[in-house]
Amino acid sequence: MKRGFFIAFIFWVSLSTLAGTKWNVWKNLDLNDLDVELSKVQLRNRASCAIDSKKPTRSMFIFLNNTIAAKAAYRLANRTGQDRATITKELIRDFRNKTTRLTQEIHEKLLSGQLPLLPHLDSENNIPVKYRTMLKECYGKLQCPQLNYYIENIWTSSHRLKHRLYDSFEDSNYFNSKYIKDSNTYKCLKVKKFGPLQANLFGQKPSIQDLNRIAKQLSDIDETVDECRMDGIDTLENLQVAGYQFDIKNIKERYWDKKVGFDYWNSMKLYFAWAMKNLKVENTKYENIIRNSNTQDYILFSPNGCRSDIMPTCNNKRLAENSFREFSRRNFEKEALELDILSPISEGVQNDLLKDPFANVNKDILDLGSYDDADAWIQQIFKNQTQTKNYVKNKLIDALTFYTLVRKRLDPKEVGDQLDFYFRNLDENIIKNDLYYLCAEASVISDDIFSFTKKHIEGLKGTELIDNLDILFTDSPYNKIIDYYKELMDETRSYCKGLKQKEIWDENFEIEYEGFHQWYIDKTRADQSFETFPDKHYESDALSQDFIIYKNGDIICRSISHCLRKSIISIIETSRATYYGDLFWKSKFSQPSSDLFNPYAERVACKVYDPYFKTKQVMTRFVSDIGQGLMSWFTPGVLYTRVSLTPGYVTSFNKMIEDGQIEFNKEYEKSKVNVELITEFGPLIGVPCAVSITGSNKSPTNLYHFRGISVGACVDRQGGDIIANSGSDISDKQTDGVAACAACRINFEGISNTLTYFNSKLGPFFYIARALYSLYQGLTDFDNIPRRWELDLNKLKTTYQRYGEIPKSCRSTLLNGRNCLKDKEELAAVELIQKNELTILASKKIINGYKFKVQECNNELTVMIDKHFTRLFSKCKRKH
């Protein structure tokens, strides 16, 4: 009896408590009126972003440079006497509308099967025979008329049977409708400012402050994005550029990633490039101007985030295209000369990649946040790209013009005799310097052993880019120019090697470094680089002979030495244009793209960065340390070794020791093992690598370009020794003349004794303890252990409205893509209300459920929750 009374009392108290529960008023109700569809934002760290680069993107940016369209409009207005501002705005509007409408039309035709997928050449899907042959023939060319004709036939057919009669298409070349979850598969937005929908571009794992800021920005989302289509011209503010984002949705993830994703983007870019030039989409009076103005050359596709639009490849073309991200630097004009593309001598598109294997990622690497709006950022990258293109093009034209003129006047077979005559009198220091400049520069750039550019320049043979530019003022192809240059250098080096160098450049000789070309100083004296003035050197009367003069009186070469040195500069400029040609001169038959926001696409493809390396290394070292600990129980004198995995990047000599790239062989070790000769105790700090380099310090032909452990030469001359602690740390040391070879030495025996000592004294407990500590330390690496987060902006909005802010406790839940509410019951109730497309104004807890006030209903709604169901027990009385 008493027990029953007690239970009833508790029940009554519970009812009274719940009955008195106050309504929880939801905040920030203005978020309910958003016109923009919110999506999920994928957030990745460095390793995870690198992994994702091998997956096809679902979100693409399209950046437009309106300059060419605006110029066409301006010319039209001048000819017709119409208002320039109105004509310009109308034509730019139509250009933008055609771009966005085309992407949607191509997308719809692909998904409906009216157009087949045109696979990339490495696709696992069927590659039609005629298409494969044509694509191979077009590779590396700027124009491909036969492919344009092929695409025109495919587009006009719009039926699978006709496609298969035309080429060997199969079912795998069409989208399978069973993997399309909903008809709503396309979304397009005009990007006004990079904001919440692009949160993945600003940071890896948002803090709670970042989440609150993103949620707050949702209220102003209309200021960051807009509709793609533009009808009037009154809202057209920036006439120079525009940016759009279109997203692919409701296609099953595995099907997209494994089967069709990369083929879709390859198809989109091929169809788009053809359609912009050949298809009438917008029925406007400016359509013909847009089609005939090469407007497609001023459109850039770029994946939004870590994923790619093509399978990352390690080739010059893709590396050059991805160099586009360098133009986004806010201080580009100040920092441009630090880039390989504008350095005095370009080493190729791979140079910046190797210098910086661990680039930042998802940390606003492109300075998006420093601009007031997206248009300002887009305008900056196109401006920098155009200026750089003009610089490279002008230098290229000068170089090709030089070779066109000089080849007719200077026979390589006469170089030796010309040099003998020119340098017949070496009494003056200025003449000696002139000879020194020539021999030194020729040796560095073309020596068979030590030149760091010879192999690059020889590799340019066979490239057709410069020949395709139609700016070569000669009937000879670029290959013949390279052959001519090589003959000049061979004759020059032969002449220099025959000189009695010690007699010419004796102890009284003083080198005047200002006469060198800048590239030489930057490459050989990088630690003390300074500005040079080679043209001023040739203003001296002693050097000026007006060796080759153009018919209008312009001096091409003042002397044979001047001519040969100019040939070096000219070949450097042609190599720069060839390396980066795909960045400036793009093929007309496929729309260009660039992985602007993921610098790890090319690093993974070129094996400069391995996203799984850290994980494998941590586990390998853990097993190795445990094994070493067990071994120490029985053989305390065995040398401590830690088996290592070697990552795919090149660093200094010290780093090579740390990463276990030195082979070590002891008597008890029968096979060479990749071991790590280092320990946390520090006995190996500053282990030197002694390098002995012989040859006169004043000999221009014996130059040693030292990078890591790469020097190797045996000569019998007097010279100086060099001691190096790493590849970039070299200091002179005077020594007597000896015959020797360049060598690198390290005292392995001393190191092994030290490590054996520690091993025998500390025993197994150290290794087992360190194994556990290293495992913990390694797995907490934030950048190189793959980590990924997903932020659902709809759920972020719900949490923000429920609490009026994002609580600290919600961070992990939200970053796992889930709602963060009070408990599971509230979560189930809220999701049911939202599923019915109702807008919550307030909520409160009741027995076995929740009550809601919603915007669309006059009455309160009750949601009852049980273990087995969640049901809406009230019918909405709609407001009129």
Class per helix and strand makeup: alpha+beta
pLDDT averaged over residues: 74
Q: Strand arrangement, largest sheet?
A: 1-18-19-20-21
Query: Tally of extended strands?
Result: 21
The total of helices stands at 32
For the termini, the CA-CA separation is 54 Å
Radius of gyration from the CA trace? 34 Å
Characterize the largest beta sheet: strand count, sense, and whether it forms a barrel. Answer: 5 strands, antiparallel
Instruction: Report the oligomer.
Output: single chain
Overall 3D geometry? elongated
Percent of residues in helices comes to 40-55%
Relative strand content: 5-15%
Low-confidence runs of at least 5 consecutive residues = 5-20, 628-763
What would you say this structure looks like, in words?
The protein has 880 residues and is α+β, with helices and mostly antiparallel strands. Helices cover 43% and strands 10% of the residues. The chain is built from 32 helices and 21 strands. The protein has a five-stranded antiparallel beta sheet, with helices on one face. The chain has a five-stranded antiparallel beta sheet with strand order 5-4-6-3-7, with helices on both faces. Helix 8 crosses helix 30 and helix 26 runs antiparallel to helix 29 (764-779). The two termini are 54 Å apart.
Key phrases:
880 residues, alpha+beta, 5-stranded antiparallel beta sheet, 21 strands, 43% helix, 10% strand, elongated
